[in-house]
Amino acid sequence: MTLVAMFPGQSSRYPEMLSKLATEPACAPILAEAAAILGGALPADFTTNRDVQVGVFLANHLHLKRLEAAGVTTRWSLGLSLGEYNHLVHIGALAFDDALRLVDARGRLYDEATGGLMVSVFPLDAAPIEQAIMRLGLSERVGVGLYNSPRQHVLSGDRAAVEQVLAELETEEYFDATVIEPRIPMHAPCFGATAERFARLLADVRFAEPTGVYVPNVRGALLGRAIATEIRDCLIAHVHRPVRWQASVDAIAAHVAEPWFVEVGPRGVLHNLFGKDWMPGRRAKTDVATFDALVQELRDVR
Fold first, then answer.
1. Other Cβ atoms closer than 10 A to 59
2. How far apart are CA 62 and CA 206, in angstroms?
3. What is the topology classification, in CATH, of domain 2-112+190-301?
4. Rounded to an integer, what distance in angstroms lies between the CA atom of residue 54 and that of residue 291?
5. Are residues 147 and 156 in contact, defined by beta-carbon separation less than 8 angstroms?
6. Domain boundaries, the chain
7. What SS3 class is residue 74?
């Protein structure tokens, strides 16, 4: 059995995600360090995208450190959207303090965006969504921002374009549509200007040669021996191009023996994407209430 850490993105947020871990021995020093790096108090109400990004990044990192303090380690990981920054820290490509500052700046840039919409669409294959976008001639304004599983995807783009695509799909398909972000079109073609601004922030960030395999969202494939320029290019593209999560998970499942995907974060969003139509390996999550039982189970199979 091969443990694979999955770091979730912003949809995993909830108000107590940091406070629930604040008194844990492995977590308290990290939160104090994070507050010092950020120059003040940690986010608490998560009303801005900056606060959400910083909060989820820290929560993911705390869950990882709890596992490591309990003796559970792995060289394999990947992260969805924001979680890719936790993945880069885990594989040694990015220092924790640099990653935290970068996530902080990324969130502030995203908060300046307006007029976007992200909508989760389920259960529906990707092909009808892509075809509707092409029929309407909207490929520069909206796209599939996240390919999460065979039947769950996220439309992202400017509000009017997303609503047009949904209306077109409703004439032929049955699906549920849930707004997951009411303002910021992450991973959408219309977010290119934000990607250009983010590229300038990345220019001075130090990247090391990873000690583990890099799995960039935009490629949905394993990238061995990644160099700094490749990582920067992937992170810039990551802002306005799709997250290929299903492909990323499948790539690891095809490469490692008996993968056990453990969601290392505050909720179970990635854990819940697995289902009858997509089960690439065993799954678990680092739930606070069942953490000790999970650690014991992981030790038993390693």
1. 26
2. 23
3. Malonyl-Coenzyme A Acyl Carrier Protein; domain 2 (3.40.366)
4. 23
5. no
6. 2-112+190-301, 116-182
7. coil
Reduced to 3 states (helix: H, G, I; strand: E, B; else coil), residue 76 is: strand
3-state secondary structure (DSSP) of residue 291: helix
Positions of E strands within the chain: 2-7, 76-79, 116-122, 142-149, 152-158, 176-181, 259-263, 282-285
* Per-residue pLDDT reduced to its tens digit, 66-117: 999 999 999 999 999 999 999 999 999 999 999 999 999 999 999 998 889 9
Residue whose pair of structure tokens reads 């695509």 in the numeric block: 165
Rg of the chain (C-alpha set): 19
CA–CA separation, 301 and 292 (whole Å):
15
Q: Report pLDDT digits (tens) over 214-264.
A: 999 999 999 988 999 999 999 999 999 999 999 999 999 999 999 999 999
Options 3.30.1330.60, 2.40.50.150, 3.60.110.10, 3.30.70.250; which CATH number does 116-182 get?
A: 3.30.70.250
Contact 80, 145 (CB under 8 A): no
235-248 per-position pLDDT tens digit: 999 999 999 999 99
φ/ψ region of 214 (left if φ > 0, alpha if ψ in -120 to 50, else beta) reads beta
Q: Are 157 and 189 in contact (CB under 8 A)?
A: yes
Which residue type, as a one-letter code, is found at position 36? A
Phi, psi of 133 (to 5 degrees): -60, -45
* Paired sense of beta strands 2-7 and 259-263, if any: parallel
CB 146 within 8 A of CB 272: no
CB 283 within 8 A of CB 5: no
Integer angstrom CA distances of residue 7 from 57, 66, 94, 302: 9, 14, 15, 21
